[in-house]
Each structure stands twice: as C-alpha cells, then as structure tokens.
Amino acid sequence: MPNLNFLNKKKHIKQKENLFNFKNIFIETFNSSTTSAISGNIRTKTTILFLAYSMIVYLSAFSFITRSYSNLFFILMVLFIYLTVSLKKENKNIDNKKKLILFPLLQLTKDIADTLGTVKGILPIIKQWALSIFCKDNIPMFCLIIIYLITPIILISWGIPNQEKIYTYHIDEWRFAMAIKNAFTTGKSDVGGIFYYITEGVLLIPFYLLHIVNPLAVKSSLTNLTQQHRLFEILRLFTMLYGVLSISLISTIVKKYLHFNSFVTIFLFIMTPVFLIMSSLVKVDVAVVFWILLSLYSLFQYIDKKSTNKLIILAVVIGLALAVKISTLPLVFLFFITVLLYSPNKKELIRSLAIGLPILFATVIVFGYPDILTRFPVYYQFIHTNTASRGDTIFLKNQRLYLVTKEYPLIFGYFLYLSCIVSLLYWLFLFIKKVFEKKVYVIKKELVIVTGFIIFLCSLLPFRIDGGGNRALVLLPFMVIVVSMTILQIIHKTQNKWRYLLYLILSIGLSLQIFQSYAWVSVLFSPDPRHVASLWIEKNIPGNSTIGIENIPVDQMLPDNVLFEFYKTQYDLYQHNSFVNVDYSGNKYNYIILYSKIPKWPPYIIITNSESMHFAKGSPGYGIDSEYTDIMNRLKKDKYKEIAKFTPNFTYYRYFGNAKDFYLTGLIWAPLSIRIYHKGY
C-alpha cells in the first residue's frame, strides 16, 4: 500500500513548483475562460475584473493628462495591494518569502488571461451577431438607414467655420468641439460629464494619426479655419454614427423583445424633426439617445434572463449614460423599478440593489466626473443649472401647457405625438384592468417602458419651455417603443378586415411625419439669412463705413462677414495686449457696440430677431429688457430707415408652425430676421 502522506507531500511540492510557471498558468486560465465564454457562462468575477481594470486604466490616463501624479501613484498602489492580497489568500502555505514579490505579477497574469480568454470566447458570438445583421430580414432597416443619412450628409457643411466665417451657426457646436479638445489637454470639462468628450477624442485619434485633422492646432475661433472645417465635418460624422447605432438598437429591441416588425418603428424614429436636425449637428443629444437605447436593451436582457452578470452590465451601461449627460438620471429610477418588479422576494431585491447601485454610481463618478472632489463647485453649478427650474421667458403665460400641447407635437411630429398620447391612455386603461384582474405580471415589460416615458417626461416639465428643443430628444425612444407596442396589441386583437383600416391610418400618418420632418429641414436646405445678408452688405454698404451691432455679437446671429471682422479685430487686440486704440485697418468696415445712451450712432445699424419683442406684448414681464426697448425706440426717434431684411425660408414650415414657435423651440439656430437700418447725415 503506497504511503499517502508521501504522495500528498510530493503533490504539494509539485504544485508549489508550478505556482510560478507563468506560461502554464496563463494558458490554463486562458483556455478555461474561453471555454466558459463559448458556452455562454461568463463568470461574474470576470465581468467585475473587466470593469475594475477599465476603471483603473481610465483613471490612470486621466491622472496622467491632468498631471495628478499623486493620484496616479495612489491608483497603482491600490492595484498592487489587490494583486498581492488576492493571490496570497489562495496560496497561504508558500515557504519561500522571496517569491512573495512575484505575487502581483502572477495575479496580473491570471487576470489578463481570464479577460483575454473571455474576449476570445465572445468573438465568435459577436461575429455570428454581426453576420445576422446582414440577413434578408434587415434589408428594410438598411434602406431606412440610407434614407436617414441623406439629410445629415447634405447638411454636413452647413454653418461650420470656413475661410469666410468663424464659429458655427449653432454656437453649442463650437463649445462641444472645444470641450473635446480640453478633455484631452487638461482632463477637464465645463459642460457636463467628461466621458462623451473622451470617447469623441478617441474616435478622432485615427484621423489625427493619418494627418487628416489636428484638433490641437485650433487655438482660437480665428485660427486654422481649414482645420476647423474638417474637424466639424468629422465630428458630425460621429453624430451620424451614433444615429445609425441607435437605429440598429431600437430595431433589435422591437424585433427581439416585442416581436414586432421594426419597419414602422424605425420609420417613426428617423422621420422625426428633432432627431433629423440633431443628427446634422455636433451635439451630445443623439449620443444620449444611443445610451438610453443601450440601457433599454441591457434592461430587456436582464428581464429576459436574470443573472448577476446581466445586472452588473445593466448598472454599468446606465452609469455610462449618466456619465455622458446628467439628463439621463431617470434611468436610475427605471433601474430601481425593474429590479423591484422582477425580484421574486425581498431578499433578492436587497441583494440586487446592493450589487447594482454601487456599481452604477461608481461608473458615473469614475467615467463621468473623476475629478468631482477637486472640482465639486463647478459640477454642482453645472448640475444645478441643468436640473433646476428654468425657462423664465416672458413670451408665454403657461409654459408647460405650451410645451406639451404645441412644442412637442411640432418637434416630434403631430402623428407620432398624437399616437403616443393615445397609446399612453390605452396602457393606463389596460394597467387598471390588470390590477383588478390581479394579472399585472402579464404586462410587466410594457409597464417598465411606459413608466420610463412618464419619468423622463416628468423630469422635463420643471424646465418649462426649456424642456423642449434638443433636451426633449430623450423622450423619443420611449415614444416610438410605446406606439409600437400599441400597434402590436391592436393587430393581435383585431380581425383582418379592420387591419386594413389600421394600415391606411399608418400610411397617412407616416406620410405626414415625412412632410413635417422635411418641412423643418427645408429651412436648413435654403440659403441662411446670415450668408445672404453678408453678401448684400459687401455689395451695398460702402467700405470704411461704421456699423452698429448689438451686444453680445456672437449670440446675435449676425451676418457672417460682420462677425468675422469684429472678432478678428478683438483677436488682434488681444494678441498685442492693447484694447485702447482700436485699429480696423484690416477690415472693410468699422464696428461699434450699440447702447441707447451713446450720443451719436453710426449710419448703419444691424438688428436681429426684432420680432421677439413683438411676441412678448401682453405677456407677464413685457418690457423687462429695457436696453433693447430703448434701442428700438432710439431707431424710431432718430428716423433710421430699414433698407434690407433677411429671413429664413418658411415656405413649408409655415404649414405646421409660425415664427414664434420657431424661435421658442430653438431647434434650428437661425435668426427670424436680420434687419439693416440706415440714416443719412
């Protein structure tokens, strides 16, 4: 009979000898993780490892950019302690203390092998999913994507800097572009979470390496205008990418989890004025829609098959959505409601929340606000500004009523908005019915979506009139899915002869959506008043004339050449540190900022959006802008004559809205009018 103690001792010695065989350990761990991933059984530990290392790499890069070397040292020390302690727990009986120094490297090897093995196992699944996208069933989706891309591609050069103009027509585009540059040069963001700007910067790296564009060369609004032009075209391509990904996600959600033909859903999604216009700009809003849809997709995955892994993924995705923009905060409440509805008991509910919420908020802080401790006042001010009640406009008596009865139908499309209201009433009735029947569990999935829409809507109403425009785009995924769910219910519950009536209503409604969407877009397709006015000024106002303009020039939507020359002078003064003797010798015209108390006004005056004060007549607070009122009164008193007027092309838009609606929605950043006045001396 063999000596068992001798054999066990020999086996133990062999295990200790193999403990530091890095090659064998890497291969064994790699193969084990690959096998698990292929079988669809990804370990929770692997998911947490991937998240943890992602955070470490992200924070390390952030610390390096911001030159916070003490933070970088702290992060590396935490990593070292984790690597040492985690493996030492598994191997307590190591005799050779000299080998303890190899523990961190050994644990790191195992973690890397675990992660890479999982990635290798997932790759065939991703490949299979990618190939399935190009199947015959998705041909309608690709056709709609092509139709969707036509508009932003045509408008890719609309209102961006070139050799004859500075800034972008929509000034937020300029601010977002500079935020991307600042994120990579200073590691700071003054316009919300930094994650969106970091991802945009990462996408720019190939273009930088190929010498297509150099964002770092843009030092001011007046330098490297060719580089600026390319930069904004590329950034708009990224917006289109987010749009295409959003279309793919909503198609997958509807087909996989609602079992509905996605054609109508996608059509309603893309043929929406606010989505088409935002897809043509460098704005974070389309990216926000993508992250909301990705959160909904992760939510449906969790509902479909609950597991700790899917709970962690859901928490991470919602955290990243919040790291992109704080307006996605309602997703946290949706996360809580989903866990509440789908937890079989109180113990499971507490466990899920205890795992999910810390991961969610850690993701938000690490990826969105990593410097929150040192820049808390800045972030507090930004969040307060973006969540506090605003919309103190003097143009409306009841702003919330205007928002839900006029602006939302105008920017989402009358058919989609009306269908959404009818759908909400239908699901409310069905919910009450199921409560009495004690069968609420039958519509839990639908209840989550409807609740999500209501929460997001309630988050916008405190902003009053500012809850519209691009900010309202967060409602679009929920609106389209709610309407799709209702259509599916109607199809299932009606006889064939009534379905033809439904199809007729859908056809008319979709046609109306197309007309309304392109009625808005037609304003952008037409020559912009700022460009037309610029050409007129060059031709009709003599050189060396002095022109009066309103303050602040960049916000007044002035003609292109006026804005260019004014800020060129300001830039030259800044470069020479002289703000006393203004030299306009390099310009064709001279400029003066208008104030009502200036003794003598110049012969030419440019006034933009003068209609805005007419909208305010009879409203609370009318006349509050006394300086503007004094300027207009001075024009009449000094007998200035209007010699030119330039307005947007409202040929098709006027069928759906008027000039006041256009101004208040702020969907297209264009002046209602540019008026040029003249007084002979």
Topology, please?
Layout: H1 4-19, H2 22-38, H3 44-65, H4 69-90, H5 103-133, H6 139-154, H7 171-185, H8 195-209, H9 225-257, H10 262-270, H11 273-278, H12 285-304, H13 308-324, H14 330-342, H15 346-368, H16 376-387, H17 399-412, H18 414-437, H19 444-460, H20 476-493, H21 496-525, H22 529-540, E1 546-549, H23 560-575, E2 590-593, E3 604-608, H24 611-615, H25 626-637, E4 641-646, H26 659-665, E5 674-678
Parallel strand pairs: 1-2, 1-3
Antiparallel strand pairs: 3-5, 4-5
Helix pairs in contact: 2-5, 3-4, 3-5, 3-13, 4-5, 6-9, 6-10, 7-8, 9-10, 9-12, 10-20, 12-13, 12-14, 13-15, 14-15, 14-19, 17-18, 18-20, 19-20
Overview of the molecule:
With 681 residues, this protein is mainly alpha-helical. It is 65% helix and 4% strand. It folds into three domains: 13-133, no CATH class; 136-525, no CATH class; 529-678, no CATH class. Helix 6 runs antiparallel to helix 9 and helix 17 crosses helix 18 (414-437). The chain is globular. Residues 6-17 have low confidence and may be disordered.
- SS class: mainly alpha
DSSP helix count?
Answer: 26
Radius of gyration: 30 Å
The coarse overall form would be: globular
Strand order of the largest sheet: 2-1-3-5-4
Question: On the 0-100 scale, what is the average pLDDT?
Answer: 84
Head-to-tail CA distance between termini = 123 Å
Beta-strand segment tally: 5
Quote the beta fraction: under 5%
Largest sheet: 5 strands, mixed
